[in-house]
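Justification of resources, computational component.

The compute hours requested in this renewal are based largely on the per-chain cost of generating structure records like the one below. Each record pairs the submitted sequence with a full structure-token output. That output is archived, and it is also reused by downstream analysis tasks.
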Amino acid sequence: MTQMSCPSAGDCATAGAALDAGAQQHAFIATEVNGVWGRAQPVAGLAALSTGRTSIGGVSCGSAGNCAAVGGYLDAGNELQAFAAAESGGTWHAARRVTGTGTLAGSPSMAAERVDCASAGNCQAVGTATLPGTVTPAFVLFAVSESGGTWGKAVEIPGSVTSIDGGNGFDSVSCAPAGNCAAGGFLTDTEGLGHSFVADDSAVTATALGLKAAKAKFGREQAERISVKVTSRTGGTPGGKVAVKAGSRIICVIALHGGKGSCTLPAKKLRPGRYRITAVYRGSGTYSGSASKPSSLTVTR
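The structure output for this chain reads:
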């Protein structure tokens, strides 16, 4: 056994690897329910993915009966791949291969090493990968999130690329609350020197509001363009919608594209007077909501 997680007394999950009669290594999971341990079981679905050795990197439970396990397996091409398996309501579901996006799209080799679940169905896993399309092998650290019970794609952790394959990886990851995590480990730089590191992942966003002009003429308000921008504290591009309000009244809703968007003020939507305009980002499955500082808009006759 290599990992254990107990979200409450008498309710735990443990994971590890065992050798079969042919000395082949296989990952397993065992759970304790109300103080009674069940038998160790192979990771569900992993036999369909792997043709050889499998291993466990970590297991974590957001609540009793709701856990996640991650690790690695050898595929048909004898390449190491990462997997994630989730338990919900006391039932383990089939493991799925972790795939990458962005710079990690098409990565030939990945391995998930650690996982932490802040709550049921909301987990963060971290690991190592080989970058695709490089003449000299390049290695990178990655993170992959589960949100609301659905696993996303792995993304590169900025600043972690190295050409040295030795000792790179994570010692731990921790999340509290969901979407706000920190991880630490060891990385070998291009000169072969080892360094400890920490990396943060946060769902926190900031919303900015811009007005084309501070005044608009009643009946011709469409000449006023309102722009918004939503940024993440630790990178990434928030998506979703932003409601623009005059006081408590919504005057337009903007769909974000690349974290930005704009709208024109509808004609005669506001009576002549002075208004406090704010932009409210509603958040998404990945990012938290946020609101801009108010800006003043005067509608004249």
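The first strand starts at residue 3 and ends at 8. Residues 283 and 289 are 4 Å apart (CA to CA).
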